Amino acid sequence: MSRFKRNQLKKTRANAELGHPLPGCYAKSLGNCSGSLTGEHYISRSVLKLLSDDGKTVPFQGLSWQPRGKSQDISINTFQSKILCGDHNSQLTGLDAMAGSIVETVERFHMELTEDDTGSSDLNFAVDGFQLERWLLKVIVGAAFSGNLARASGEAVRDFIPNEQIIEVLFGKRRFPRGWGLYFPTKLNSLVTESIPSRFGVVGVHNPVAGLDGGIVDLSLLKFLLVMVDPPRNQPDSMLNDCAYRPDTLTLTRKGIQKRINLNWGRRANKRDVTLVIEKGFRPS
To answer: In the 8-state DSSP scheme, what is residue 54?
Structure first.
């Protein structure tokens, strides 16, 4: 058999293993699409429920069709789009449960620290850092692919199609290269107030000069920056200069009491700890 025929046979077998890719499923490059497109909450329904006062709407800002910089009460059903097939949708369910646990814990930590009768003891909560990265990626990719993501300028992100590497990271086939992934913007998180409403927001980040692509996700009391490309190096005006890369611990503290979110990065521990002091006043937007 000629080399050409052997290569063609390999391609045929590979395509057969991949299964049928479903148009409209942003993970179709993985193959094995099943059924039809399903309604996917690119922002986890469990998270939205936790941040909702009435179980139907949630305060949100950053969608491409919202007024720039303005938070509005948005129906939870609005965050559902037909962007994944049934099989690929179900593979991300575990990420949604993890994100719900984080929000519930952060809200509880804040409540306990601001109520003297329940905030008297230290407490720790462990999170898989790579899982958190994947969930943040799910939010950004889903919002962008569905046409709902806007940049900080207010301009909508159009015709976004995630590349194969991004999809493989999202579905746990590989991890982000070193330097990509989760950053914690210390300036944006420098103050957490005693009284602050639950909120959620997402905005796309694109810097054509520095070459930075990713998104900022505003989750309950915290902001996370996810970098989806090779980040700029040694740029004096880069927003990454005010960020902690893959911190090991996020600590909420008030009057000497500490509540810690421990991020597990396996053997790649960075020994970076970030402390947020709960004070009176207004948190910067």
So the answer is: S
Could you give phi then psi for residue 139, rounded to 5 degrees? Answer: -65, -50
* Contact by Cβ (8 Å): 167, 29: yes
Q: What is the pTM of this model?
A: 0.83
Q: Which residues contact 284 (CB under 8 A, 6 or more apart)?
A: 187, 188, 190, 191
Picking from 267, 39, 43, the residue whose alpha carbon sits closest to that of residue 135 is 43
**Beta-strand relationship, 257-264 and 212-219:** unpaired
Find out whether 75 and 60 touch, Cβ atoms under 8 Å.
Answer: no
The 10 Å Cβ neighbour count of residue 180 is 20
H-helix or E-strand spanning residue 205? strand 200-207
Average pLDDT rounded to a whole number, residues 167-172? 96
Return the SS3 of 131: helix
- Let me know the angle formed at the C-alpha of 274 by 268 and 277, rounded to the nearest 5 degrees: 160
27: left (phi over 0), alpha (psi -120 to 50) or beta: alpha
Instruction: List, for residues 223-252, the tens digit of each pLDDT value.
Output: 899 999 888 777 787 778 888 999 999 988
Distance CA 253, CA 277 (A): 5
* Residue 166: how many other CB atoms lie within 10 Å: 19
CA distances from 111 to 52, 89, 221, 228 (A): 16, 33, 11, 33
